[in-house]
Amino acid sequence: MNIILFDGECHFCDASVQFIIKRDRNKYFKFASIQSNIGQKLLKEFQIPKTIDSLVFIEGKKCYVKSTAALKVARRLDGVWSLLYPFLFTPPFLRDAIYDIVAKNRHKLGKQTECRIPTKEELERFID
Question: How many domains does the chain have?
């Protein structure tokens, strides 16, 4: 199970999912919104607060949030994005401080009023 949980009400988060899909040719990731039934079930299963303000990445039986989740996802993406992975060795309080600034302003960063409609192939990667 390699699932990315995202805020389904956030345009920046939607853009991030689209970014990941385009760079995940091996189709490693599946996606679910935090607000979905499966999203809520997984939050409970991994004891993550429902008020989480972060991308959540579930890889196997482990769960990652904030910058750790983002870097673990980047490691699996095509292109130069995997080069970000060594930042995982930066102290989490520094990485997460930057992550929190982006998360706090994410609604301002995603200015679009409509989400792109996924193709049939892309829809198969979404669960619930």
Answer: 1
